[in-house]
Amino acid sequence: MATEKRTRLNPEARRAQLIQLGVEMLATRTLDDLPVEEIAQQAGISRGLLFHYFTSKQEFHLEVARAAAQELLRRTEPDESLPPLEALRGSINDFIDYVQENPASYKSLVRGAVSGHDEMRAIFDYTRATLTDRVVAVVSDMGFELSPRAKLTVRGWVAYVEECVIRWIDDKAIDRAELQEMLAKALPAVVLASTDEDVGTLAQILTGDQAIAAT
């Protein structure tokens, strides 16, 4: 019987290959359901050899989660060639696209954060902090400096976006355009509730003709 030809890779390349295979499988299954045997088979190695590159299944899961989080951040990176509001609108659209394409992957990241596992929480916290910093940067590029209180509410808005998109993926209770508009309009609302200066101007910019809501 013919056997699959194994490709020899250096340890770093093999480790990267295994992580990428795990990330790809996360599109349709949760982190806990990743089939280590199938991943090893696709890589052309034995299950036991997989743990030559990772000390445990838990470490493998952590590295897959970290890679998935980096892919999310890469996919949602604002386009700096666009005006700030258009770049932010694009990031919202890209975020919805990513979660829609990888629902199990993103849910694993969120659930891992609430599982009590410190390293999983650190991955999730870093991801959310980066998304928050991007929103704050857009507002700053518009000439507004947000107070610590306002920055805290922006982080809350990011969490709101995450939860709404996850729920929308599950039930599609509204159409995508409605979802995008709702998420966009919520941003000036939370900033308005937490900022004492220039809130009128900021609200007008974010909800006016050039608002971040999809047109």
Which key phrases capture this entry?
single chain, 215 residues, mainly alpha, Arc Repressor Mutant, subunit A, 2 domains, 10 helices, 72% helix, disordered N terminus, disordered C terminus
What number of domains? 2
Report the span from N to C terminus: 59 Å
Radius of gyration: 20 Å
Q: Mean pLDDT, as a whole number?
A: 82
- Tally of strands: 0
Order of helices and strands: HHHHHHHHHH
Beta-strand level of the residues, as a percent range?
Answer: under 5%
- Unreliable stretches (pLDDT < 50, length at least 5) are 1-5, 209-215
Number of helices: 10
Describe the structure.
The chain is mainly alpha-helical and 215 residues long. It folds into two domains: 11-61, Arc Repressor Mutant, subunit A (Orthogonal Bundle); 76-207, no CATH class. It has ten helices and no strands. The chain has helices at 11-25, 36-43, 47-53, 57-75, 84-101, 103-113, 118-141, 148-171, 176-194, 199-207. The radius of gyration is 20 Å and the shape is elongated. 28% of the residues are buried. Mean pLDDT is 82; it is low at 1-5 and 209-215.
Brief write-up:
The protein has 215 residues and is mainly α.
Secondary structure layout plus pairing:
Layout: H1 11-25, H2 36-43, H3 47-53, H4 57-75, H5 84-101, H6 103-113, H7 118-141, H8 148-171, H9 176-194, H10 199-207
Helix pairs in contact: 1-2, 1-4, 4-7, 5-6, 5-7, 6-7, 7-8, 8-9, 9-10
